[in-house]
Amino acid sequence: MKKSFLYSLIFILLIVVLPFMNAFGISMSYDENKPFIIAPGETKYIDFTILSSSKEKPAKLSLEILSNEKIASLTDKTSEYNLASGGEIKSKIKIKAPSEAINGTEYSVTLLIKDTTSSEETKIIGISYFSKINFKVLVNKPAFILNQEKIKLNFFVLIGLIILIFIILVIIAYIILKRRIFQ
User: Model-level pTM greater than 0.70?
Assistant: First the structure.
């Protein structure tokens, strides 16, 4: 009897509380297990998307970088966003690796996404929804960098050397044939 009452109470609480919850999802290509790789002194951008299902109410979101702000920053002029029901927000994080960073240096970056919808709009007092996204930035200088200009130059130098060798071989063959004819 007591267990069924407890289960009934939990079920009723879930039914009452669930309509007030706002949820959103974050889509990003990097996380703790799949680091973002960047060379020392390089600047790159990470794309991410915040999604809302069509069943969710519109929400006001606040984005903030919580850790390693020296290398990571949001690219938008504002950190406040309006997420429509069934909508999405696309943004970028700018990553700038220090030029003095050593190969293998890892930085852990945390992005905080907080629902700042006012309590007057949601009729809820004191509840705030947030999500923290952690990802690693790995500084790793590539062993070699392919430079298209150098590849084109090297290609033409190689073709020039092949043509020069061919011309030298033709001259040598001509000299040998000329000596045989006159002997």
Answer: no
